[in-house]
C-alpha cells in the first residue's frame, strides 16, 4: 500500500493537487460500498422512424439522398457494466470488448460466482475487489459477459492478432509493463504477463506491422518504442525514440514542490502504418515517417500549426481510406492522414490550475504521406472538438463524434459536450466536406469511445470525467450505450442494401489474389461502377485514438449478374501485401450507390 500510495502521489497527485480534491478522490477511489448489482438491459428502445419517405428511384443513392435524414440515435442499453474507457469489436463473436481500470475497485457489474474468488488487492489488509472491470457486450442482444482482469488497464493500448484475438498492453501500476491476451473462445479469459514490456506504457499507442507483429510507442515518461513480445517472453530493453522526448511540453516555474508543470501534449501519439511501409508518428504538433526495418527516421513532415493535438490536448486522427486498383497494386502511391481538433498548447494548465476551460481547436489538417514536400492543407470543422472520436465509415467517409468544445482531457477538465456528430466527406470538394448530423443527448467526453459495427452503425459508449464511479455530479459516470446510424442508413435507401451471402463467399483471402463475394440483391443486375468493396480493420479505441483503424477500398474486377437467381457475384482484388493491409480480420462491406451492406468477417494472411 505504501508503494502504491507513493506511485499514486507521483503520477496522480500532481494532476490533482491544484484542485484540492486529492484526499476526497483517494477516499472515493477505495469506497467499496456501492450498490450496483448486475442488471444488463436487454430491452432496446429504438424509436421508430416516422418521417415521410421519398419514393425510391433508380438513381437514388446515399450521395443524393433526401437531405432530411441526418442520422439517428438509439439507446440500446442502460448498463454496459463497466464504463467503456477502451473498446474494440472482436471478430467472429460480434461482441464489443469494453474495459476501464481496476484502480477504482468498483464498476456497475459485480463479479459473478463463476469468476470468483475476488481479486485480492492487499492480503494483509484484507482488501478485495469483487467487481468486473472488463466485459463482452453483445452488439445484437446487449447482454454482458463478465471477464476477470487483475492488472490495471487504466489508459492502456491494444490490437488484434492475425487470428482475431486481443493483445492488450500497458496501463497503470502493475499494468504498466503488462502484456495481456484475450482469445475469443467461449470460456476464454485474460492471460496477463506483468513484466513483459521493458518500459512502463501508460498512454501509449500500439499498431500492427505488415508481418502481424505489434509495435508500441510512448507512454508517460517512456520516450521509446518496443516490439511486443510473444506470449511468455519479455523484452529486456526498449529503443530510445527522441521524437517523443522532444515533443513533450512542460511549463517551467514553481509548482508546489515541482520545478515544472507537466503538460505533455504528446501522449497517445497518433501512429499509422503508411502503405509504403513507413510508420507515421504524430505527437503534439510534429510528425515523422519512421522506417521500422532500419529503425531510422526517414523524413520529418511540416509542423501542423494551430495548437497541440495529443493527450491531454487530445485531438483525433485517421489514415484516410486507401484506394486500390482492380488490376492489383505493385505499390500504393497515395496515402493521406487527417488530424482534427485538440487544444491550445497550455489549455491543460488553465484547466487544472484555474478551472478555466479554453475553447477547443476547430481546425483540421490533411497531408499526403508518400509525396515528398507535402504540406498540411487546413480546413475548419463546423465546431471545436477535443477528446472526440474519428471513425472511418464503410463508405470511406469519416465520422467525427463525441468530445467537448472546451477544455482538455483529464478529470473534470472539460465542458460544453459536443453533441453534434459531423460527417467528413473524404472525396468532397474543399469547403464542402463537413455536414452536421443529428445531435445526440448524452455527453460523451473524457473516457468515451466509438466503435464501427458490421451493420454500418456506430456504437457509442463510456464517458467518465470522474476519478471513480460517481453518479451525483454534473457529468455522471456514463454506462448507457447508444448506436448512431449515419445518413447512409436512411430507411428510404434500404432497398439499395446488398445482402452478402456469407455461405457462398470467400472468407479467407490471399494477398494479391482475386476473390468472390456473392450478394443477394433487389436489383435485377448490378453495374460495376456503382459498387465499392471495402475492408475495415476494427480499431482499438481509447481516449480518442483508434489504433489500427484502416479502410481499404478494393478494386472491383468484375460483376457477374445472376449466378443464381437474385444473386450477383462480385470479383474483387485483395490488397497486395501486409504493408497495405496488415494480416488479420477485417469487416468486408459491399457498398452499392453509397449504401453499405451488412459486413462479413474476412481474414487476410
Ligand atoms: C509547436 O509546439 C511547440 C511546443 O508547444 C511550440 O513551442 C511551437 O511554437 C509550435 N510550433 C508551431 C509552428 O506552432
From TrEMBL:
SUPFAM superfamilies with a match to the protein in the record: E set domains, Galactose oxidase, central domain
Region (Disordered): 31-66
Name of the molecule in the record: Galactose oxidase
Protein origin, superkingdom: Eukaryota
UniProt keyword list: Signal
Polar residues bias: start-end ranges: 31-44
Keyword Amino-acid biosynthesis found: no
Domain Galactose oxidase-like Early set: 505-604
Transmembrane residue ranges: none
Stored Pfam families: Glyoxal_oxid_N, GO-like_E_set
Signal sequence coordinates: 1-22
Domain Glyoxal oxidase N-terminal residue range list: 85-488
Keyword hit for rRNA-binding: no
